[in-house]
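Two records follow; treat each independently.
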Amino acid sequence: MVRRLAGYSAVALAAAYLFFMYDETVTSGILVFILLYLPVSHAYLLLVKGNVTADLERVPAMGENGKRIRAGVTVRNDSRLAGIRYELILSVRDARDGKKKRKKKKYTGTVPAGGEETLWCEFVSGRCGSIEVRLEKLRVFDLLGIFCVGRKEDQACSVKIMPGFALMPLEITRKTREFQAESDDYSGEKKGDDPSEIYQVREYRVMDPLKDIHWKLSAKEDELMVKEKGFPLGCTVLIWFDIRESMTTSESFSAVAERAASLSVTLAEEKCIHMAAWYEEENERIVKYRVRDEEEAYNMVWHLLDLVPCRDIGKRDACFADEFRGLQFSSTVTIDSRGELWKDGEKPELLRL
């Protein structure tokens, strides 16, 4: 605005110089126009600045890593008199980066009287995580586009950038296949050793233990019937996220999300029910998600993108011990701040669970 006033002053001085140097009617008209333009422009801007509004109404909640994302800003003109010229300043940044890495873009247009239009900001994110789209400022220009008046908007929306869900090489051993974890759900396809749930009732066979005989049903059917116990569908594998603030960057967290997505969807494809868990420092609790299929794997990663890296490791480990006391898993896989997989303190070439 200062440069615009300086330019206006220079033009006004030049017109005044011409007015005194040349006795021409046209120079007088030019000088009068220039001198009257500033107060008329000021009055016009005061009249219309409150009639223009902008909203981040068309920002998608989700995007995919490496794909183009379109965020729309709707500009409305409540004035019934004339179209209004405007300028928007939008910024896009990774939520885990500082404000210094905020990228700002300017968009200009004209919205007709009583109408609205949508401006589209397109960007591509090369990392997984949360992207913040912020409407920072709105400027309204006068009829000739020389002077303007602006106001801060400070509207923000978050776009979660999801990783690709690709299968990864791993081996599920018999130990994990047959591991029985506590659960309220039971398999309808195979029997187990949980006496609290009956898988099926069948005729007695030689070598069946007497304790499994269903005596009431045997008396009714007039032949020995045996109860087969249920197989609980509990979480056999634990995926633990060891994400520390001192070791986490936007790039490394993107690697964490990609590795978590690949591991979880692969386990779901292998019909291996698992649990993903991480520490929520703000509420001093362990967040847990039970994953049985691809949809639940997707939901787990969606919430994982909100994870805040931990600072107090001692308190986190104490919460972990309390939360999982008495629970057993066939295998525990740790994903660290760099997105690397660890099992039993070692980084395996091929993950065997």
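The next record belongs to a different protein.
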Amino acid sequence: MQILQNAFIPALLAGVGLYALYKGVDVFPTFLRGAKNGLKTAAGILPTMVGMLTVVYMLRASGAIDFAAAALAPLFGVLGIPKDCAALVLLKPISGGGGLALGSEIMQRCGPDSYVGRVAAVMLGASETSLYTLSVYSGHLGIGKTRYAVLAALCADVTAFAVSAAMVRLYFPCI
């Protein structure tokens, strides 16, 4: 099995190269065009990324995330989400790095094998940084009307968080 894993990427690259040779595609100029377009995209989304990261750090440093989490903890409790994970529910859709740092804090405080630690771990893997992704790509593409996309993304995130807690209760009932 290990030999197959080690050979997969080189075989994939060789296959792409052979297919390009078969089709008569000049690979290097095509690669350079793709890299040039990638750099344009990266330069285009950089201002939005800087703005979002600034907002995330300001919310975190000001305590606004913790305040909102404390206020919404009873509502999250109805959905089966532990109160210790309330701040994670609010931060993860905005920032993957901030969510990961908060998840790490939760696991240090409650333990990785605790119910709360397991719920936090599953939440981190089951959800997306939806607001961050929407803002970066909508900002880059100049899309201004994202109201329904934001609502759909937040509904998906809340569903992922509630199902995460339910699955941990289902698969780890002794905790």
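Discussion point: The CA atoms of residues 70 and 164 lie 20 Å apart. How would you locate this feature using only the token line?
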